[in-house]
Each structure stands twice: as structure tokens, then as C-alpha cells.
Amino acid sequence: MSQWKHISIACLKMTNFKRFYGPHEIDLISQPDLGKPLVLIGGDNGRGKTSIHEAINYVFYEDGDLPGIQTRPNYLRAVSDRLNRRALDEGQTDYSVAVELIVSGGDADRRLQIERRWEVDIAGRKALTPVLTILENERPIDLIEDNTVVYQDFLRRVLPPRIAPFFFFDGERIQHFAEEESHDRRMVEAIEDILHITVYKTLRDDLKKHVVDYIEKHEVKGTDKGDFFKLQEDAERIESELEQKRDKQSDIKREIEEARKEQRGIEDELRRIASPHASKRDELILQRQAFESEIEIVKAEIQKGFESLPILLTGNLGVALKDALLEEQQAIAPERIANLQKQIDTIEKLVFISPQPAPPQDIALNEQQRAFYCELFRSVSKEALGLRLSDRRALIHDISEGERQNILNRLAEVTQKTVLLRDAINRREYLTNELRDVDNKILSTSDDPHVTELINQNRIIAERIGRLEGESATLKGEIQRLEADLATRRRQIEDRQQQRKATSEAVKAIKLARKAQSVLDDFIRKLAPEKLTILKNHFVEMYGRLCKPEDPTRSINIDPDTWQIILLDERSRPLERRVFSAGMREMYALALLWALARASGRELPIVIDTPVARLDTTNRRALFEKYLPHAGHQVIVLSTDTEVDVKWAERLSPYVAKQYRLDYDTSTDSTVIRPGYFF
């Protein structure tokens, strides 16, 4: 299904939908091979043109996928408002919309029948439950599961709801595509969807959600108990926790990068649409950027200072530790006492007990003399070497001299860092206050409400970035603590087998998925410029056909981060779309829609309701002669006789495959569909 690049609507069926009482069917097949892509449907206001436009949308989507609808209750209320009133009065229960699609991807065509019908509470005059059915050649489509959720996902892949507004649109509202205020995240997501970038982003995110997160939760078990000692188990546990935190830190970093891209887009727009105080605002924005940079440096200093936080929190215990270590530095260590005692015993044995060689008999000591001199030797030796019990100090810390000196050096370094940390915290407070003042000044220099809105958006994004950076800083501290713990464990088991790394298939799958995520990130960064070039070329081609000679636009730029389309004059200066006339905005929007359709690489049907309501004669001529005949392989135009009048209908007739008229039937107080236009 992912290869279905060509889709046509063969027919539309409606039963008791809005103005259409009872069953109605309309053949919409076009003839692009004969140069006839247009299907012209005419009707006076209130006769059901918009009903046809809505019926197509309501076949494909429900709930939040429909424009302006977010929840199931809102959706059911909207459907209830579209139930034919006469059918409700008569107690009829048949309410539905359906389309037949012809889809292909280069192979044989396939015919899909899609129907959405609603169970209705007649007494309450409201819709209850939608029932979605998808058939292929009159047989249920072959999906893994037979339920509405799976069917709806299938339709979202056939025609993603975010790109539908670019193919099914209302001519009276088309100008909102040209309004700068509408260029929000929803617009960017739709453009990314059309240009297939969303596919790769979704794949990247799904790898994390359905592979990495799922396997870590359901398949990666705790440390293997095996025959490893407790120290080895601890090291493996710490290493696993480290990897999780590093992965989380990478995710936060990606979020920060995306937020900063969005922030840059807002700041660029601020500079571009600034009020007459632009020069002052630019200076203030530069000051704000300088303060933000200084704050980032101070945050790094504070974070570095927090490395010593565990020792700082000991307070007087740290001072007591230092004093004890200094005192013990003067004492004799137990191992040294044992060695000295052993040496004394050896000397006593070699001199008094078993001298070698043995002294002559006449000068040899008797037992009483030997005992006296041995006792005297022991006493003098202990006195001279400080080995008497009264002279010994109790050692609290059984550590080597080198380790003792390292601890003393560390305590001295922490004392010095305390002063630096306090200074950094004070400096951050000062810079934060200065940044707040600059933001207030920027806000006060603007007389444009849109600038105020942009500044507020920028502040919200900056706060979100700050929260994310705070999480990142906390993670960094935790990572450093875990790295220190891991290093300690490894020193303790350095004489044992090197830490065994996990080799299970689950862990291998996680590592492979993360590598794939990284590759997809690189691919997205390389793909975007190529897509931008294609989109830009298509836009320039169609806009050149539609614009008037006096139109100041000569070229465009597209921001690769924000997808903002910037129109440029003959001197490559940005133009404000807000000051364009209604006709210029509609021509711009039509060129954008046409360019997006071409850049998508997919051939989808186009449905245009009320296409020329606000256009002058010149723009209408451009629309009829240069846009509609070339907009797509199937273009369904819903129009009144004042928009596409008899004259223009005759001039469009070489491109028209079918034409219909919506008439009023007095017998049923509803609309009926008849062949032919207004003549």
C-alpha cells in the first residue's frame, strides 16, 4: 500500500447526508489521458456544494483527524448536525457516506469501496456510533485484524489526514495558507508529511518506542546472577544504569536541538516583522543572546562545582575528618608497629638467646643475666622507637599514607571550590535578572500584537529549553556519580576477570536499533535540503504562471529548519505577505499547494470548493487558464454560476470530463444531482 502513488475517486455515495435526502450517487471519473482532468459541479449557495466537500472528508476521517474536531463527543455532535432533518423526522435509520477509489502503484489498478455509516438515536436526533467498512472488489479487505481501529489506520496511510487540507480545500479559506500567523507547527508537520520526511521521523521514533523501550521493559532482565561475585554484579548494574541515563540524555539533547530550531524561526520572524523600533530591538536581542550565553557558561561552572556537593554537605564532619587524618599522619601505622616488633625480636634472639657464633664459655651469660639483659633491651627498644602502649594513638582510618594524602588534598580542593561555587550562583542570579529586564524592554519596544505573541512564544520555548537543560545537568551529575562508582568497583576487582558485557539477543537488538536511529537522523538532515530544492522549483514554476506583472515577488527562500517560505523582491529583500492583496495571497496559496502536491511524488484527487469568490478578473483568468487544467489528474470543482459562469464553463469545457448541477427538489425539500452545468 505504501507504493500507491496514484489515487482517483471513482464515485461518491451519500445517504441522508445534509442537503441530500435519501440515496445519491455521483460518478467522478476524470479522463486525464484525454486532457480532461476536471469534474465541474455547479449549484447555488445552500444547494449542497459544501456537503459534497464534507462528505469526502467524513468518509476518510473521524474524530481529531477532521479539521476543527479534537474529541469523539465533538465528532458525534458534528455528525449529528449533518444528518438530514427530513429523514430524522420520518424515523429513517440509514445514514452514510461512501467512496469508491481506484488506486495503483505502477501495477494493476485496485478498486476499494470505503463506507462510513452511523447508528442514530432517532428520538435524540443524534449520531451514536460510526461503522467503517472497507471492501476490495466487493470483498472485505485482507488486514491482520478485522476492527475499526485497524481500518482507520489503513485509511490514514492511504491519505494521511495532515496532507488532506492540501488536496481537499475551501477556496474561501485558502488564503490562510498565505498568512504568516498560520505557519505553525501543524503546517510544518503537514509539509514534512507531504515530502515524506515524517515517514523517516516516525520510523526513528517507532524504533525507540517499539524496539528499544519495549525490549528494555519486557525482555532485558536484571543482572545475570551466574557465578559472578557481588562486586561484579554491582559493576554490571551500574553500567546498565549508566547506559540508560546516557540514552535519556541523548533524547533530551535531541529535544533541545528541535526546540532551538523552533526558537530560531521565531527570532528570525521577529527581526523580519519588527516595528519601527527594529534597530533598538535588534540591539536588545543581541544583548539577550549575550546574557543567555553567559548564563550557559555560569551553569556549566555551577554544575562543575556540584561535583563536590556530597563532600560539602558533610559540613563539620569534613572538618573532623581532616583533623583526624592530620593527627593520624603523625602516628605509627599498625603494620609498621608489627614490623618493628618483629625486628626487635630478631635482634634479641641473635644477640642474647642464640648468638652466632656462640661466645666463649668464660664470658657466656647465665640464665639470670640473659633474662635481665633481654628485658632491658626490650624496654629500651620500645622507649626509643615509641612502641609503648601509652604512646600509641588509636587509628580510625585503616588506609595507606598515599590514600590519606589524596583525601587531604581533595578536602583542600573542595574548600577552595566552595568560594567559587558561591560566586557562580550569585553571578547567575545577576545575569537572570538582567535577562528579564532585557525581555521586558523588548516587549515594551513593540507596537505590533503579533510581535508580543512571538516574544511570549519565544519565552515559553526558552523556559522549556531551560527545564530540559536542567534535566540534562541533573543527569550529567548522576552519570558522573555512577562513573565514579563504576571506577571504584573496577579497581576493587582489577585482579579478576574483566567485566562481562551483555551479549543477549535483546541487548544486541537495542544497540542495533539505536544505531539505526542515528543513521535516520543523518539521513533526515541530508534529505531535507533535497526536498526543499524540489519544493522551491515547483513553487517558482506555478507562481510565475499565476502572478500579475506588478507582483513584486521575484524569488523565494525556504528556511531548512523552520520550513518558513520567505518571498523576495528584485533586490532579494523579504516581502511581508500580510500586506498582500486577497488575490495575491490566494495565488500564493494555490502555487504553494500545487508545489507541495508535485513535490510529494503522489497523484491524489483535488477537491476545490468555491475557488474564485474573492478574485478579480485577472486572477480569475490565471486560475481558469493556468491552474485548474494543470492542478492534477482529477480536479473536482464545486462552484456557483457567478464563479464559473457560462462563459468560463464553455472555455473550460475542453478540459472537463463530467459536469453536474445541484438543483432543489420541492417534493423532498432537498438537493438532487442532475447531469449538465448551468446551461
Please bin the fraction of helical residues. 40-55%
Q: Biggest β-sheet, characterized?
A: 6 strands, antiparallel
Q: What average pLDDT do the residues reach?
A: 77
Work out the radius of gyration: 40 Å
Beta-strand percentage range: 5-15%
- Taking the alpha carbons of the first and last residues, their distance comes to 42 Å
Please state how the strands of the largest beta sheet are arranged side by side.
Answer: 2-1-4-5-6-7
Looking at how many chains there are and whether they match, the oligomeric state comes to single chain
Q: DSSP helix count? A: 18
Low-confidence stretches: 180-184, 222-228, 497-503
Number of strands: 14
Shape annotation: elongated
Estimated structural class: alpha/beta
Task: Provide a compact summary of the structure.
The chain has 679 residues and is an alpha/beta fold. 54% of the residues lie in helices and 14% in strands.
In terms of topology, how is this protein built?
Layout: E1 6-17, E2 20-27, E3 38-43, H1 49-60, H2 72-81, H3 85-89, E4 96-104, E5 110-121, E6 126-136, E7 139-140, H4 148-158, E8 168-170, H5 185-194, H6 197-218, H7 230-272, H8 278-305, H9 309-312, H10 316-330, H11 334-353, H12 367-385, H13 401-444, H14 449-492, H15 505-546, E9 555-558, E10 565-568, H16 582-600, E11 606-609, H17 617-627, E12 635-639, H18 646-652, E13 656-665, E14 670-675
Parallel strand pairs: 3-12, 3-13, 8-11, 11-12
Antiparallel strand pairs: 1-2, 1-4, 4-5, 5-6, 6-7, 9-10, 13-14
